[in-house]
Specification:
hydrolase; 13 strands; mainly beta; Thrombin, subunit H; single chain; 2 domains; 6-stranded antiparallel β-barrel; 4 helices; TRYPSIN_HIS; protease
Length: about 270
């Protein structure tokens, strides 16, 4: 099943998956991205990671991941901000365990949600968004920005990357209460288009995963970073199920959107 952070999109997308005889038995409904095959991160290990949470009748709940790129801005996936009300969206900085208030977290409401003007929820093209925060993030050991690549600075096939999040640790499972991490290699666009189809993987998308499966982002990880040595190259976007053989995770390739990001950080 396709994973993203908005279940309302799942049914309409299910029939768009390619039919591949040697990849039979994988045609369930789409789902949202969590870290599968990973391990728990150390508290404060990734100080740029935030939890994007939505206020509801019973308090706040984790919706998506995101990354600090400035004292007032969070980078996330477009489908995480699509249709949301900024007054109900909070960013939790310095979070590790969603069930425990350590007293070190910063909780900041969003003042503006910025969605790429050409975002397409049917194809996940231009799946990038920003959260403009009402208050300033106070930097500390557990709250730091991540670096962005140079425009069009592409990451080579085979490069080992890390992705992080509080998503489910199994497909269709429950959210992780603690931040998880997993290491996955970059997959070439050509190889990624074999299972997904030529038209489904755009040039501004990035794929990462292992052929045998077992390591991936999953439901709830959407919007989180894919990074190498403190530089963010991808935003967790979508995929067919979670950690399935032959189907790598698909990320928004940040290098294609660096200019857009800076233009909207005003």
């Amino acid at each position: 099943m396709l994973r993203l952070c908005l279940l309302a999109l799942t049914v309409s997308l299910a029939t768009g998956l390619p039919s591949i005889p040697w990849l039979s038995g994988r045609k369930e409904l789409p789902q949202l991205p969590r870290i599968v095959g990973g391990v728990e991160a150390s508290p404060g290990e990734f100080p740029f990671q935030i939890s994007m949470q939505k206020e509801g009748l019973f308090g706040r709940s984790h919706l998506c991941g995101g990354s600090i790129i400035d004292e007032h801005y969070i980078l996330t996936a477009g489908h995480c901000v699509k249709g949301q009300n900024p007054g109900n969206i909070f960013v939790v900085v310095g979070e590790h365990d969603l069930d425990v208030d350590s007293g070190n977290e910063q909780v900041i409401v969003a003042s503006e949600l910025i969605l790429h003007e050409h975002y397409d929820g049917a194809t996940f093209t231009n799946d990038v968004g920003l959260l403009h925060l009402l208050a300033t993030i106070v930097y500390s050991d557990i709250a730091q920005p991540i670096e962005l690549p140079e425009p069009m600075e592409l990451i080579p096939e085979g490069t080992m990357t890390l992705t992080t999040g509080w998503g489910t640790t199994t497909e269709g499972g429950f959210l992780s209460n603690v931040l998880m991490k997993v290491e996955v290699p970059i997959v070439s666009d050509d190889d990624c288009r074999v299972p997904y189809g030529v038209t489904d993987i755009a040039d501004h998308m990035l794929c990462a995963g292992v052929p045998e499966g077992g390591k991936d982002a999953c439901q709830g990880d959407s919007g989180g970073p894919l990074f190498v040595n403190g530089t963010q190259y991808g935003i967790t976007s979508w995929g067919y199920g979670c950690a399935r053989p032959d189907y790598p995770g698909v990320y928004t390739e940040v290098a294609y959107f660096v200019d857009w990001i800076y233009e909207h950080m005003t």
